[in-house]
Amino acid sequence: MLAVTATAFHADDPLAGLRVADVRNPSPPAGWVEVAIKAAALNRHDIFSLQGIGLRAGELPRILGCDGAGVDRDGNPVVVHSVIGDADAGHGDAVNDPNRSLLSERYDGTFAESVVVPAANILAKPAELSFEEAACLPTSWLTAYRMVFTNSGTRPGDTVLIQGAGGGVSTAAIVLARAAGLQVWVTSRTEQRRAKAVELGAHQAFEPGARLPQRADAVIESVGQATWAHSLRCVRPGGTIVVCGATTGDAPPAELARVFYQQLRIVGSTMGSRQELLELLRFCALSGIRPVIDRVLPLVEARRGFAAMVGGDVFGKVVFTV
Ligand SMILES: NC(=O)c1ccc[n+]([C@@H]2O[C@H](COP(=O)([O-])OP(=O)(O)OC[C@H]3O[C@@H](n4cnc5c(N)ncnc54)[C@H](OP(=O)(O)O)[C@@H]3O)[C@@H](O)[C@H]2O)c1
Predict the structure, then answer these.
(1) pTM for the full model?
(2) What is the sign, positive or negative, of the torsion defined by CA atoms of 248, 254, 258, 260?
């Protein structure tokens, strides 16, 4: 079958270790099922894997891809939950299992004609969503869902600041927060992306580091070092910064005095549970909101999608179809 595989790590040139070629078909172990992939979505995680972040050399070659939607053996349309873990070992949440992994880390991922996953990791695809739309939900959208609805502590009417508006997590957070009745503010580096964020539902868009009209109740932070100091200054006393990523580096000054004096809550957030993915699928089906898709490419042209993300030329999600 055709697959997109990481074969080597190159920190400065991630595409150098990318191979798009035929590999052997997988066969599911007991309790696992095979899903014929119809669509799969690209995440920053896939670039990090090619850079040797989160993936070990002993795991190569490894099929990339955390997000996927397709059909199971019986022909049912399904969405794949990417967190492979034991909920019991994680106090009821597989994400908290110390041994959990995401598809493409320890087990082959979704950028292939088929993937095998534990039977509990497939969920019915709502008929309202296309395969391309459904494929965008299990990673960045699920992460944004948990950040906004489980971890931010916000309620309808509150104000949320979303840093780095153009990213997969950020565009998801904009759409979800707007649909839930929050006031949505964003930052982005370019005028064009700020305008797109407003088209998408943000109430106001600011340049990175800009002074805001008032402090936000919560900040959705996935950019890391480049925006961290701004996030600390933009949240109200007692407010929450939810952080899921550090694309630009993770060594900004912690500013502990500001954290304790302003009584800030800093909450780490990763992916989401099967139940949260179920809720997200239903939220999209019921509300009519849909993932923001930048472009759809056939899997065989995946390299073009990777190059666009590395070049910063993506607003929303890149989807590969099989
Ligand atoms: N913990 C988890 O479960 C989880 C899940 C998903 C993602 N993540 C992490 O979250 C981060 C974002 O993921 P993603 O898939 O949304 O990535 P993405 O689509 O590549 O988005 C990254 C965004 O960061 C902003 N950015 C990049 N460089 C910047 C800079 N120098 N200064 C300011 N802003 C900058 C950009 O926004 P603008 O161009 O609009 O400024 C960009 O769109 C990654 O680090 C990823 O690993 C974590």
Answers:
(1) 0.96
(2) positive
